[in-house]
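Quick start: what a row looks like.
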Amino acid sequence: QFLYFIGDMIRRSLRALSDTSGLAQAPAPRASRLLDEATETSLTRLLYAEHYSPHDKSAESSKKGMYAAKTEMRWLNEWAQELEMSDERRRSAIKRAVLERVDLHKPLSYIIG
């Protein structure tokens, strides 16, 4: 099920991207980001370390895992943008979602449902 979820995440993100030349550039455009770059990077690293860190430690696997973590952060950002609340509460919602994902291992689909 987990591999199906990852595959589905990657397929959805590839369909959503109109320009496939920038696959390593998964984050949302600068204007729509709620979190500052340092916070977003640290949360992305948390997701990567917990869910996407490859067992073989090859460069190709690391790139794929980091891409998946960045894509997940982009989805969380898009989800938070749709919430009807202040920007500060949206930022808190993103941080809480990442912590639930890392600490409680909740599925992304459960969080952004």
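That is the whole record. Helices lie at 2-16, 37-52, 59-82, 87-103, 108-112. Residues 79 and 112 are 6 Å apart (CA to CA).
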